Amino acid sequence: MQLTQCIKRAAQVDRHGIATIFAERQHTWPDFVARVSRLAGALRSLGVAQGDRVAMLALNSDRYLEYYFAIPWAGAVVVPMNIRWSPAENAYSLNDSGARVMIIDDAFVAMVPKILAEATVDTLIYAGDGEPPQGMLSYEALIADNAPAADAERVGEDLAGIFYTGGTTGFPKGVMLPHRGLWSSGVAIAHHLELSAGARYLHAAPMFHLADGAMSMACCVVGAGHVMISAFSPQAVLEATSAHRPTHLLLVPTMVKMVIDDPGLAAADLSSVQRVLYGASPMPEGVLLEAFEKLPNCGWLQAYGQTELSPVATVMPPEYHVLEGPLAGKLRSAGRAAVCCEVEIVDEAGNVLPRGEVGEVSVRGPNTMLGYWNKPEETAATLIDGWVRTGDGAYMDEDGFIFIMDRFKDMIISGGENIFSAEVESALSKHPAVSECAVVGIPSEKWGEAVHAIVVPAEGTEATEADLIAHCRELIAHYKCPRSVEFRSDPLPLSGAGKVLKRELRAPFWEGRERDVN
Amino acid sequence: MQLTQCIKRAAQVDRHGIATIFAERQHTWPDFVARVSRLAGALRSLGVAQGDRVAMLALNSDRYLEYYFAIPWAGAVVVPMNIRWSPAENAYSLNDSGARVMIIDDAFVAMVPKILAEATVDTLIYAGDGEPPQGMLSYEALIADNAPAADAERVGEDLAGIFYTGGTTGFPKGVMLPHRGLWSSGVAIAHHLELSAGARYLHAAPMFHLADGAMSMACCVVGAGHVMISAFSPQAVLEATSAHRPTHLLLVPTMVKMVIDDPGLAAADLSSVQRVLYGASPMPEGVLLEAFEKLPNCGWLQAYGQTELSPVATVMPPEYHVLEGPLAGKLRSAGRAAVCCEVEIVDEAGNVLPRGEVGEVSVRGPNTMLGYWNKPEETAATLIDGWVRTGDGAYMDEDGFIFIMDRFKDMIISGGENIFSAEVESALSKHPAVSECAVVGIPSEKWGEAVHAIVVPAEGTEATEADLIAHCRELIAHYKCPRSVEFRSDPLPLSGAGKVLKRELRAPFWEGRERDVN
């Protein structure tokens, strides 16, 4: 369970194989390993020692993948920084992790002075394509000028990375993942996605985020190739897919929606795509049905998990993505336990609940985190007897499929009833006038909380609040339907991982008040 | 990396799935887990404590698979006993491991008094189908009468099993394998064999041996089903395959030969078989070519490894089992590093040798053993800086394929030249008059050792010593060709794993003399 082992193996068994393709550059596996070992040599010569944290703030590129392996090769710990965060939030993650070396690309050079106003960094490495700005070392020069380091060969329980999460709670936590976590998650994902050495993966989601990061590991474990686009856009996905013929994609639900709505879809060549993994947030059923229709020839999989699980917990395989036949009826499920772990639905005391009862998703396996960096209390509350308590409400059916109801903190308690925002959103999303939507609990004198929907209407449509409420009443119980609908023309605020930031949507309604969980 | 996790997962995600089929019995995954947990409960009530060793001496059955999981469920350690061993050798493995509980089936009941004459066992459990003999507990009654135990949840570095190996060296060693070893080996094998939940594996090789044992783990990790035949015979393989339609087989080379030579082959239905894994000893090229011809529709894979590696090190995938085209030329290779490990060819000091040079195969990964039970010196000589030195001579080509030359101890040193017996056997096996053959070094005044061949002729053929030597001279260098050929009508002596016992063949020639390695 050593991350560096897999890239050495890939270079040994596939010396002509293409490891990375980005813009006009491509590297074979032996090139890739040579660059990784030289970058590790550079870091060692800069004083990076065993266990030191090295941060990276950058858009996607082949260099991001080199970073993921050069840091452990040097014996250090990755701290991938959130590309959506403000300078203050980025400074927080540097200060909290104690990273004194930061790698930065062209997109974030301008932010550096603002970050440095609040954080101390000793060494800045410029991984852009121009001349390095003053005070920054050149990434390419470091690789060219340094001899390869010997692999530090960290393994098993050794800390591999600190991944910041929980921007949505207001208190970012650094999730400590060991080598065994990322390796076992990688090998499990490779199994479920049927990834093999001949596969090629398109990095369309941000590489700092572990949804994509775990795909990086899965591909490297089996020696599959990588294509990167610097940032997601539906056009970039369609162009890179047509040009480089990836076999596997990972898209968060909002990205799926944008790709299938893109006018370029019809002309693009997506025939190479065998599997699309979606996840990181629940996919509204309406979007999923549309996606099946528009991309009928690829297998769809959902993965559910969280950073604390490296990040995979359950997988919903392609054969259950059907509306008819003996396997139908699972479409709203997040799938079943991945091969690397055990999944249970438990009550607050940790007792396993009967099938069908809603409780907390609890997961154990080699993929669990070591804990939260410098947060023993939060660790103790989340990692209990080796199980990660996810904070997600769900039930498990007789066949072992879990159905995620909601993050517990997004659950709306109205008139004593628990209402899961995801269920209401799923109903809303089926109305043709709804392009995006989010449902939150807002204060109500009468009910405690009331169900409030925020809707971005589809272009050229007109639907009233009453229309949408009536539509929901046809699909779900009255008490779950929105009591109010608010229309917005701007897209909903998203986290770096593409999740709707409900805390942000809720905040104005709760100003000056206390919500139990926020 | 907990072995019991995977069967709990299988029961959760596939409650109607068939776990085991043996004779007239079959069990679903939930049944299987219930039986395992009850057997574990029985063992706990019999006083089996954390880390205790529990031995099993039995032919293949569904109960053998239950044993592999009930023992770790109870917190104990499996000691699968070699079905080919004499009572004295079996007593040795009991005494050496300290196992005080032994599970025994009908085939070995008669041997018990002889074993007990030399070993102390407190509890005998009868896993046969009749009434338990006096002094033995009934396996089925233990399951019926005991409540399920809580899973001991041993994991990672915890000892899972002691597997005796090295009968061929005269000094059996107990290889200590941890949970991480068996789990990572299982997940790697599942990847290379493309095993998934829908697959079904036929246990034709003996289940005590780790070649089959690792397949047990691989199948359970992904939730694939198991069919057992009590012992290998070509007829039993053909019948079970026709009746139960397994997708995957594992056969050692001698078994492959017997299956393809069987007169029942033409009438059998082998259409379900997608993959045949062969290994445990090198496959003579002649047999391989005949096997391709007779079973053209299944993919052949070779796995190379040893018990010390849980046991997989390299895999030779189906697409390289070809005589023509761009992938040809690798047929004599044992393949490339499996996804779970690193493989190098090293000199005696452990330095990696250039490609093409013959040295020792050295392997590192989560699949390595903890060491030899109670044998710190042998452990120190084999497990060096985390690498297992295999004792096998091989070279690696530019593409990362390894070509096994010989066990170092089977290598013949004649006139100062190293001659690899496997190469000579491969040449001999291509002669139509050769059914089985083995090549060993025998004492020679002139050359130190001389190349001696022992041949079992094919039925209805007649070939002389001179014919076979002449045949070899057309294929390999003169100095490698046998100087003498001996014909035998009896089959060659085999180990329990189906390996030819060369030490036994050599012994009469070396009586009263010393061979450097024996």
Protein described:
- The structure is a homodimer of 518-residue chains.
- By secondary structure, the first copy, chain A, is of the alpha/beta class.
- Chain A has 2 domains: 3-396, ANL, N-terminal domain (Rossmann fold), CATH 3.40.50.12780; 415-510, ANL, C-terminal domain (GMP Synthetase, Chain A, domain 3, 2-Layer Sandwich), CATH 3.30.300.30.
- Chain A has 15 helices and 27 strands.
- In chain A, the strands form 6 sheets. The first copy, chain A, has a 9-stranded mixed beta sheet, sandwiched between helices. Chain A has a 5-stranded parallel beta sheet with strand order 4-3-5-6-7, sandwiched between helices.
- In chain A, strand 14 and strand 15 (312-316) form a beta hairpin.
- In chain A, helix 1 crosses helix 8 (210-222).
- The two termini of chain A are 37 Å apart.
- At the A-B interface, helix 1, helix 7 and strand 16 of A face helix 1, helix 7 and strand 16 of B.
What's the CATH topology label of the largest domain in chain A? Answer: Rossmann fold
Number of helices of chain A: 15
Structural class of chain A comes to alpha/beta
Q: Count of DSSP E strands of chain A?
A: 27
Name the largest protein-protein interface in this structure: A-B, 37 and 37 residues
How many domains of chain A, as an integer? Answer: 2
Mean pLDDT of chain A: 92
Helical proportion of chain A, percent range: 25-40%
